[in-house]
Design brief:
With about 375 residues, this protein is of the alpha/beta class. A hairpin with a 2-residue loop joins strand 14 and strand 15. Helix 6 runs parallel beside helix 7. The longest helix has 20 residues. The chain is globular. The two termini are about 40 Å apart. The structure holds nicotinamide-adenine-dinucleotide. Nicotinamide-adenine-dinucleotide (NAD) binds next to helix 6 and helix 7.
Amino acid sequence: MKVAIPKERAPDEHRVALVPDTAAKLKAASLEVSVESGAGEGAFIPDSAFEAAGVNVVKAAGPLLGDADAVLKVQAPMIEEVGLLKSGSVLISFLQPSTQADVVRALAKRGVTAFSLELLPRISRAQSMDALSSQASAAGYKAVLMAAGRLGKFFPMMMTAAGTVPPARVLVMGAGVAGLQAIATARRLGAVVSAYDVRPAVKEEVQSLGATFIELALESQQGEGGYAREQSEEFLRKQRELIGEHVAKSDVVITTAAVPGRRAPLLVTGDMVKAMRPGSVVVDLAADTGGNVELTQAGKDLDVGGVTIIGTRNVPSTMPLHASQLFARNVMNLLLHLVKDGAITLDFQDEITKGSCVTHGGEIVNERAKQLLAPAS
Ligand code: NAD
C-alpha cells in the first residue's frame, strides 16, 4: 500500500503531514511512503531527512498523488489537487466541510474516501488522532508569546534595585484546548491570569492552572460532546456587558471562543477595545472564523488608539516544526487505525471511522458533514 504526502499549497501553510519519525513508523507497518520534494521545507525538514528515514522523494505532485492509495495532508486539497487523486484512494486532512463544500463534493465525485479531522469523535480512543486539539495547543501557546512580544511590559512581577514592577494581567476568553494552553503559558511567564468560558464545567481546570475563573450571571451554554452550543445574540450582548470591566483592566486579552461549524461568537466590541489602556494587546485566535473581536482583520495587526489587535491567521503554522510533528502523529494514528494487514480495511461500525469519514463510494456519507454543507441558518 502506497502512502503519499504532498507539499501544502495553501498560502502561508508551513506545516507538513509527515515527519521522519512517523515515516519510520508507517514503514514499520509495511507501508510504502513517498513525499513531494520540498514538502518539509516550511517545517525545516529537508528532503534528505525523509530519504534517511526510507521515504521516496518524488519531484511532482501529479505522479505522487495519482499512484497513492492513501494521501495525508494538513489543509483541504484544492480542487485541482482533487483531480490528481486516484479514485478509491483515502485522504486524511482538515476538510472544513462548513466552508469547503465544493471540495467535499469534488472528492465525492472523484470516488475518494475522505476523512475530515474536524469531525473525528472526541472520545478517549481517538485522542492520539485529535489534530484539532494538538493544533489548538500550539495556537494557545503561541498566542501568549505573540502578546508578550508586543506588550511594552513584563509578564512576571519583577523586583529590581530600581523598584518593583507588578505582573501583567491576562484575560483568556474561551477555556477549551487553546485557552487552557494559553492560561498555562501565561502563568509560566508569571502573569496574573483570569479566564471565562460559557461552559462552567471548565472552572476547575482553569483554577488548577493557577488562574481565576470569572463567573458571570449568565446561564451555561454547554452543548453536546463537551462543546459550547450556539448562543443567541441576546446572550452575547449580556455577556459583552458583563465582561467589559474585566477586558478594560487587562493588559492582554486572548480570545479563543468557538462553536463548531459556526461563525465565532462576538465577545469584544470596538468600544471595549477602546476602553483598554494604550499599550495593551488583544490576540484573536478566532480570526480565521470571523473573529471574537469586532475590529479584528484576519491576517493583520491593527493599532486602535494604542491597543494592538493581532489577527494572525493559521497560528499553528507559525510554529511549523512541532505543529507538524504532532499533526503527523495524529494522521499516522488515524491511518494505522484504518489499515489491517497492510491494506485499508474500513469498518463503518467503528465510531472513529464512521464519525470522521465524509465521502465514500461517490457519496457524502456523513450526517454532520451534510448539515455543515447546508448554509448556516
Ligand atoms: P472550541 O475550539 O470549539 O471552543 C473553544 C472554547 O470556546 C470552548 O471551551 C467553548 O466553550 C468556548 N466558548 C464558546 N462560546 C463562548 C463564549 N461566548 N464565551 C466564552 N467562551 C466561549 O472547543 P475545543 O477547545 O476544541 O474543545 C472544547 C472541549 O471539548 C474541551 O474543553 C473538552 O471538554 C472537549 N474535548 C474532549 C476531547 C477528548 O475527550 N478527546 C478532546 C478535545 C476536547
